[in-house]
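If your schedule permits, I should be very grateful for your opinion on a structural question. I have a record of one protein: its chain in single-letter code and its fold written as discrete structure tokens. Would you kindly read the sequence against the tokens and tell me how you understand this chain to fold? Thank you for your consideration; the sequence and its tokens are set out here.


***
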Amino acid sequence: MGIYELIKDDGCAIADPSKNLLALEEGFASKQVEESGELLAGKALKSSIGGAVPPVETIVSDFGCSPSSAARSPRLVSLDVFRGITVALMILVDDAGGFCSAINHSPWNGVTIADFVMPFFLFIVGVSLGLTYKRVSNRKAATRKAIFRALKLFAVGLLLQGGYFHGIHSLTFGVDLLHIRFMGVLQRIAIAYLLAAVSEVWHRSDVLVDSGYSLMKKYRIQLFVGGLLTSTYLFLLYGLFVPDWDYQIPLQDGMSKFYSVKCGVRGDTSPACNAVGMIDRKILGIDHLYKRPVYGRTKQCSIDSPFSGPLPADAPSWCEAPFDPEGLLSTIMAVVTCLIGLQFGHVIVHFKHHKDRIFQWMIPSSCLLACAFCLDFVGMHMNKALYTVSYTCVTAGVSGLLLAGIYLLVDVYGFRRSMQAMEWMGKHALEIYVLLACNILPIFVQGFYWKEPRNNLLNLIGIGS
């Protein structure tokens, strides 16, 4: 079950992909409604002779659909292709990022190709939510379903990224609850999905959409929520006072080495003294954070920077401190990314012509990119670990442009055959992430060995320990 299947609504969407383009441009769903109307007229005529008119629900059920799903359009092929490209990029980063700094995560400020993977996923989740909840007949039931799906995704993430599996260098498993990692990629997606879904279910008006302005007016509460989250993030990041703090690193002889980090500042965005890390240390606990932070590849912490390496002789005390790249405060802006994707999904719902959709995507994408570079220029640097506002804007802007480009190629001009591999990967994104990115497949293969654990296939090809 891919991530789309995890969050999509249940129903009877048109399964024939050959009708996808027709549905997008001409409104294939409306044709179904017309056919339903003809059936209604026929049954009404029959009832006038000697029968009662059945309810609309009964008539629609003749097609095997509920009223809310009778007019549902098929999923966009471009969304699957976009998700597949993101999965392929994720695999490339995991496998080749250690050899090429250009596709590895930035050690701190700045962005690389790898830094777009997480926002791409969040953006796509938002777009999908706009299609999933375009018609909601029971808000409470939809909310319960969203909560249940988010909990499932969070639980999967906790199992895979909490430390239960020890990786390809160890066949053992299990995690000490005193050191389990609470946050992670899937956990962040689950939180963003839940908040965006609840916002979509409950925060919309009855405004008729016929322009970009009316679209903003219809979903003005959602835009307000996004603005409120952004303001909250900025207030906490730049307003909280970060005091001095301590941590310890366990040594092989059972002893521990203690470090003290001097801060006593407010509004700092350096690796040592930022409010993002402080909030995680206070709420989650330093033992529950990620043990190999990205800033370990900075010049201050690695003689092989931008790659991992031994500590310099004058390395600062914070270099070995845990830091979670999917922490609590930074997740606020991840939710904003999902909400931005949700607004792009609304464009698909309310605008039926290709040129209108692309125009409504290009304008906000360009504005987001311009805002990102302006913020970076004035000192609010793009930073994935902190998920800064400028980073949110640049990744969301690129996501919007990429969606428009893929949509133009795949759904408008029909270049689908050349994208079949990406489409397949997009439909099975969660399975691929679990098997490859979380090392479940390598661990499974490594479990078969000859006489002793080190004699396994992974060790033979140079991947295992």
Summary: The beta strands are 241-242, 245-250, 256-261, 265-266.
